[in-house]
Amino acid sequence: MDGVLVEGFGKLMYWVSWALLLFSLFAFVDSAIRREDAYRAADKQTKAFWLIILGLAAAVNFFMGILDFLPIIGLIATIVYVVDVRPALRQVSGGGRRWPRGRGSSSDGPYGPFNGR
Description:
Blueprint: H1 2-33, H2 36-41, H3 47-63, H4 70-93, E1 108-109, E2 112-113
Antiparallel strand pairs: 1-2
Helix pairs in contact: 1-3, 1-4, 3-4
Pfam family, one: DUF2516
Keywords: Membrane, Transmembrane, Transmembrane helix
Transmembrane segments: 12-29, 49-66
């Protein structure tokens, strides 16, 4: 019975570590495609700073186990980027929601704004 629990916990930690790696890689790629001036306009750290931090977080998640201390710090840095920095960058650079309506207002038709006439 103990072997089944240990094996199940090992599999769970394996999938959690993969999820954290993918999460940190997503944040790294997202920070890489953002413009440098958007970071300054949003009054956040520089693009190079976030690339280094998120790159280190991805590397630590790749090389170390989830139960170590450094992957937790990398997870915190990734969460800060995704929750705080990324929305500020999207707001500054005009990268709002593009689906389902696009950038137009709610009264826009397929050929432009609808004026009610």
